[in-house]
Structures are given as C-alpha cells and as structure tokens.
Amino acid sequence: MFLMDDTIQDATALIIDSNANSRSLMSAQLRDLGVGTVRQTPRVKDARVMLEHQTFDIVLCDYHFDVSDTSGQDLLDELRREGLLPYSTVFCMVTSEATYAKVAEAAEAALDAYLIKPYTSANLAERLASARLRKRVLRDIFEAIENQDFETAANLCLARFEAKGKYWLYAARIGAELLLRLKRYDDARSLYEAIIAAKTVPWARLGVARTELGSGKLQAARRTLENLIGELPDYADSYDLMGHVQMEQGELQEALKTYQTAATLTPGCLLRLQRCGTLGFYAGQRSEALKMLERAMSLGLRSKLFDMLSLVLIGLLRFDAKDFKGFKYAHDALSAAIERAPGSVRLRRFALVFRGLSYLLDRRVGQALVVARELSEDADSGDFDLEASSLLTALWIRLSSQEVELEEMLPILRELGVRHCTTKASTEILVAMTEGHLGAAEQYRGCHHQIFNVAETAMRYAMRGSAKAAVELLIQQGEITRNAKLIDMAGLVLKRHAEKIDGEAELTQRIEALHGRYVKPMAGGPTKASRATGGVALRTAATAPA
C-alpha cells in the first residue's frame, strides 16, 4: 500500500459516478493509496445530499452522467456557491477527452484537481497529493477566514500574490473575494486587474464587473459583462451577474432571458432553475415558471440548495389553475420541511400563505381573511422582508377577487410599499404580485416615486451645503417608512460629511439602530444576496448553512 501522506488513513472519500465499474475501480485505487473510508453513489441527487450533511476529505466526481442533465461541474458550482464544501475537501473531477476543454477552464480556480480518462493510479496519487499540499500551504489563510479575521486573511493573500509564492493565483482569487466582502471595491478591482495582467482568466474579468456592481456603477458593470459574454458565450457565471444588473435596473423581462441562457448552459443546476422559475413568475411567464420550479422540486426537494420559496410559488400557480392535487402536493412538501425546521419564522409565514389559499379553495373566505390579517400584523417586524411582503400582497390580491369589500387592503399594501420600494427591481416584484390590480399596482409605483423624491431632496440639501439637514430628513423619513434605501443613504451622507456635521455621534447611533432593525437582505428568490457570482465561496461560521 502506497501512502500519499501521514494523515491519509484517517481520510474519508466519496465517489460519484453513474458507471458501476468505474466506481469499483476508483474505490480500489483510493484504498490502495491508503484512504481509510470510501463511500460511493451513482446519482448526483444523492451525492448532493450526502455532501451537504457529511464532510469528506476527498471527492472523486465524474463530469458526465448518462441519466441526468446535471454535470459534475454543475454540482461543484452549486455546492461552492452556497458554501457547503469546507476548504479541507479536495474535489477532483474525472472527465473524458471530449469534455476536457470545459473542465480545464475551471481547473485553476474552482477545481482542486482533474483527471482525464483513462488514467493510472500514479496520476490519481499525483493530483490528490498536489491538491492536499495546496490546502496545507494555504492553511493560515483558511484558518483566518474560518475565524472571521478577514483583514488578516486578505493581507496574507495579497502578500502571497505580490511575492508570486506557491499557489499565488488561487490565493489572489480568495484575496479579491475577501476585499469584496470588506467592501474595499477599489482594492479588489486593482487586484483583479493585476491578475488579468499576469494571467488572463475569465473569473478575474468577472471580478472587475463585480467590483463595479458593488460600487453602484451599473452601466460600467454592464459594459464589462457584455464584452465578456461576447468573447466567452459559454461562461454561465457572466450571465448570472448580467441578470443581477438587469434586475437592479428593473428590467425583469431582459433579466429572465439572461438567466434562461445560464440555465440552458447548466440544465441540471438547482439554483439557476429556481432563479429562472421565480423570475418567470414575476415576469408573468407562468407556464414556464411552473415547469422550471417543479423540475427543481423533483431534482432536489430535500437538498439545502432548494429554496422553499419555490413551493409557495408553485402553490400560487396551482391555486390560480384550480389544480387541487398539485396545490396539495406543494403544501404537503412545505409541511414536511416545517417538521424538519419547526422554529423557522420564514417557513411559518409560508405556511400562513398556504393556509389562506386553502381556505379560498374551500370557499371559506372569512377564514382566509383572518389569515391575511394575521400575516399583516407581522408586517411591522424587522425581519418582514421583501419576499414576505410580496407573498402577503399575493394573498390579499387573491382575496380581493372573491367579490368581497376589502377597504383595509390598500392601506396595508401602502405600508409595504413605502418600506420595500427601495429599487426598481423591488418595486417591479411587488407590482408583479398585484396580478394587474390597477389600484394596488399604481399605489406601489407611487410609493417608489415618493421614496425617490425624498432621496433626491436630501441629495439637493447635501449639495447645497446643508448636509446635516439631509441626514436629519433621511433619518426622519427612515423612521416613518422603515425604507432601507433612505436609512442606507443617511449613513452614507453622514460618513461623507461627518466633519461638517454637529452631533455626528447621536445621528450615527440613530442610523445604526434603524439599520440593525430594518435593513435586511431578501431571504430568497432572484435577489438573494448570499451567493457571489463567479466568486469562491468563503465558508465561515456566519455563512454556513443552517
């Protein structure tokens, strides 16, 4: 028996391959190299769940699966994007000559190792030993990240990049990711540009676009992405980021087309299927949305990558079609999820939406109205986000179609609008959920204009030298509306003009209190912020899945 290193006998490995002979061969090879425990599975669906619930030191994964649209690369992208693979895991892709080009593109960054079939045990040992060595060489960086000492980790990465030390390119990518997390956009851009100058790689060019997006330069990000897509039309991550830019600009239909292209390039990707389905729902393409969402449900309902929002959207679509059987199936799936996570506030709200719809299907309008009011009472909570507001809107709109007078509906929706109309994208999502109800749609658009008029007035104050008046206006309106855009602007204006403003400490305290209570990322859907397109997932205690 040949031992790759002194800890290999304590290692656990997972083999993912649809071919039984290949699995048997790889298992024997790993045992000959000294790997202590080897597990195997023929299906990506099962592998996804195994990797989410157990840590493996080594994963050998075939690129192509005969019975699945999901490739090994798709699986790796999803797991890394969601931060479900620890740094210690070596992920090795196995591929044929025909698909070598695709894998080689990602090998420098996303893959720890790759092997071309046919290969020998010596080839396998060499690739795994090299990958495990890289993990050990960069251990100080990984440990700093796991301790959430991001400044130290970023500085270690920069030092390795500047010295062109061992594995400098990989360290540079992690360093740029950390700089983005720290909102040091100019430093991140400089690093990405230095990487491009040293060695042109697609993820570095995508990183430049990410720094432009993070800095609020949407048009610059769009130009960068258009050039990248023109040169590399098969690079799916660039479409993800372009769709994000289009969403920020309120172009739902264009964003949907872009996300559909990404989903076509990676047909088995749960995340992209759900993103397309969710955005298709908002954009009014309901039959396509249902197809995408139910396909995602069949592929990975028990996966941590499956967003339970998909079940609620399926429920709404089945409700509108009067499909009792399909509605019940989605409802039962959500009930099972709640049993696994009984303390989830988000799932409890989803359950209320389903309960209200169930009452409407049974023509028990009075009980449905009670549920809508119960959910509305929760709308003052700090964590009642855009997603919850959109679903509450959907429930009230369906109640209003039952030929009952609902004088309370529009005032409730107005409260949701002044709070959550923060961007063109958020406004368009809320408008989409009104299902063509003119009064509700016009009210949401009016809320959007109201918020942006306040923001413009504050900016005029600041430009005319009345920065304190601008901050006070934004804080006052932020307290009334609880709108995240106004609260964020108050902090930015105060930071920029702090030296000219008396009572800066007190204003800061008020802004921080508002920010902590009301500025929350959307829990799920196409605007979910936890996924860094084109980036390395930085798994930390704060971002690890629940």
What's a concise summary of this model?
65% of the residues lie in helices and 5% in strands. The protein is mainly α.
Give a verbal description of the structure.
It is a single chain. The chain has 546 residues and is mostly helical. Among the domains are: 8-137, Response regulator (Rossmann fold, 3-Layer(aba) Sandwich), CATH 3.40.50; 447-518, no CATH class. It is 65% helix and 5% strand. Strands 2-1-3-4-5 form a five-stranded parallel sheet, with helices on both faces. Helix 10 packs antiparallel against helix 11 (218-231), helix 11 (218-231) runs antiparallel to helix 12 (236-248) and helix 14 runs antiparallel to helix 15. The protein is globular.
List keywords for this structure.
single chain, 546 residues, mainly alpha, Rossmann fold, five-stranded parallel β-sheet, 26 helices, disordered C terminus
Q: Which regions are unreliable across 5 or more consecutive residues at pLDDT < 50?
A: 103-109, 540-546
Instruction: Work out the radius of gyration.
Output: 25 Å
**Total number of helices:** 26
Q: Could you name the CATH topology of the domain at 8-137?
A: Rossmann fold
CATH architecture of the domain at 8-137: 3-Layer(aba) Sandwich
Helical content (DSSP H or I, runs of 4+): 55-70%
Dominant shape: globular
Tell me the CATH superfamily of the domain at 8-137: Response regulator
> Distance N terminus to C terminus?
40 Å
Structural class: mainly alpha
